[in-house]
From TrEMBL:
Pfam families for the chain: Mur_ligase_C, Mur_ligase_M
Lineage: Bacteria, Pseudomonadati, Pseudomonadota, Alphaproteobacteria, Hyphomicrobiales
Biological role stated in the UniProt entry: Functions in two distinct reactions of the de novo folate biosynthetic pathway. Catalyzes the addition of a glutamate residue to dihydropteroate (7,8-dihydropteroate or H2Pte) to form dihydrofolate (7,8-dihydrofolate monoglutamate or H2Pte-Glu). Also catalyzes successive additions of L-glutamate to tetrahydrofolate or 10-formyltetrahydrofolate or 5,10-methylenetetrahydrofolate, leading to folylpolyglutamate derivatives.
SUPFAM superfamilies: MurD-like peptide ligases, catalytic domain, MurD-like peptide ligases, peptide-binding domain
Protein name as annotated: Dihydrofolate synthase/folylpolyglutamate synthase
Domain Mur ligase C-terminal: from-to ranges: 308-419
Residue intervals of the Mur ligase central domain: 46-262
Biological source species: Flaviflagellibacter deserti
Enzyme type, top EC level: ligase
GO molecular function: ligase activity
Family statement drawn from the similarity comment of this UniProt entry: Belongs to the folylpolyglutamate synthase family.
Transmembrane segments: none
């Protein structure tokens, strides 16, 4: 019997381009499979540039706190492909994944299709055959032509903050990218729009007018903010005084707010303030400002060194993470050291720039799990360009071993960042993969 890794490797050979945005191949395969996308549980569809995964994590935690059964589809994975498909709260098991991948591969019969498309079709088969109250469906790339955008009538659509990323596929301006993201909007389906720059908000509103999708816009129809150490959410239904979310960073207040606004727009789900509060306190989403307090990598660092992990990889992600590191510095001052690896498709200089004046230096490392990884020398050059002293290393372990405690200073605060691929490698090396 094949294992899932062997099947996934084989599926990569079915199309010459890893990313080729189109719905034609997907609809052909779904038709051959008997259209499982028409038998899915009620869907909440989530698009955007930053914060999609965190928003899905908040939704899942709040829904499960109410006793709802929830399927989840996210990407990319960190350590194992199984993380992308969660069935009623649990990651898909190997047996079910292998059987479904083999079935879909057989029905596809060698036709050209990207790996993401065929694995999304397999996920739809799994979701359609197992009852659940809600399916949380995260867009892979863009929205309009993404393989997930075959669901005609979701419960709701969400667009998290939109910024420059994947410009070679989605457009050279943030407004063009916003049009692609807004392709998930459907007639009569409420759409919850997180905080956007004015031009993006205007673009999404124009697209929603064409699609006839009613909007609930952050800062206009709802808002989520911190007051006196509490999260305050407010909309036309009233005000919720809530605990701050377990996920760190002020940017998570907006992600939590988008989740809350969505659930309050769907009263049929019966989500109460108590369910929302429990979700905020119990939410979990690895590699998003995650502090690693145990594992193999801590043994490579000086005693009492703080080790943090975040998969941020674009300029907006850099700004959000740097802001949180700055807040930690204000509370307890420690030298901040970055261990960073990045892909050649990302704006490395723009990512590092927010750390200027905050980080003492950058230890650049390779990303071995992606052919698109920049060399450590290239990453170090980008950090130097952004005003951060940097040096390349052959591995994550070598970089961590080079961290020292400066005389007269507390042990440092080390942040491993720059890519979700790198974050996955770190969790695997640390012996703490997602479960």
């Amino acid at each position: 019997m094949n294992d899932s890794n062997a099947i996934l490797a084989r599926l990569l050979t079915l199309h010459p381009r890893v990313i080729d945005l189109s719905l034609g191949r997907m609809t052909r395969l779904l038709d051959a499979l008997g259209n499982p996308e028409r038998s899915l549980p009620p869907v909440i569809h989530v698009a955007g540039t930053n914060g999609k995964g965190s928003t899905v994590a908040f939704l899942r935690a709040m829904l499960e706190a109410s006793g709802k059964s929830v399927h989840v589809y996210t990407s990319p994975h960190l350590v194992r492909f199984h993380e992308r498909i969660r069935l009623n709260g649990k990651l898909v098991d190997e047996e079910a994944l292998v059987a479904t991948l083999e079935e879909v591969e057989r029905i596809n019969n060698g036709e050209a299709i990207t790996q993401f498309e065929i694995t999304t079709a397999a996920a739809f088969v799994l979701f359609a055959r197992r009852p659940a109250d809600v399916l949380l469906l995260e867009v892979g790339l863009g929205g309009r032509l993404d393989a997930t955008n075959v669901v005609d009538r979701p419960l709701a659509s969400i667009i998290t903050p939109v910024s420059m990323d994947h410009s070679s596929y989605l457009g050279e301006t943030v407004e063009a990218i916003a049009i692609e993201k807004a392709g998930v909007l459907k007639r009569g389906v409420p759409a919850i729009i997180a905080a956007q720059i004015p031009s993006v908000r205007d673009t999404i509103e124009a697209c929603a007018g064409v699609a006839r999708s009613p909007l609930l816009i952050s800062g206009q129809d709802w808002q989520s903010r911190e007051e006196r150490g509490r999260l305050v959410f407010e909309d036309e239904r009233g005000l919720l005084d809530l605990p701050l979310p377990r996920l760190r960073g002020r940017h998570q207040y907006e992600n939590a707010g988008a989740a809350i606004a969505t659930l309050r727009a769907l009263p049929e789900l019966g989500i109460t303030g108590a369910h929302i509060e429990a979700g905020l306190l119990n939410v979990d989403w690895p590699a998003r400002l995650q502090r690693l307090t145990k594992g193999n990598l801590l043994d490579l660092l000086p005693p009492e060194t703080e080790l943090w992990l975040d998969g941020g990889h674009n300029p907006d992600g850099g700004r959000a993470v740097a802001a949180t590191m700055g807040e930690l510095e204000e509370r307890v001052g420690r030298p901040l050291i970055l261990v960073a690896g990045m892909l050649n498709t990302k704006d490395s200089e723009g990512f590092f720039e927010p750390f200027r004046g905050l980080a003492a230096g950058v230890h650049a490392v390779p990303i071995t799990s992606s052919d698109a990884g920049r060399s450590p020398a290239e990453v170090a050059e980008a950090a130097d360009w952004a005003g951060l002293p940097a040096r390349p290393h052959d591995s994550i372990e070598d970089a961590l071993r080079s961290v020292i405690v400066e005389e007269g200073h507390l042990p440092p605060r080390v942040l491993i960042t720059g890519s979700l691929y790198l974050a996955g490698e770190v969790l695997a090396l640390n012996g703490t993969p997602p479960v």
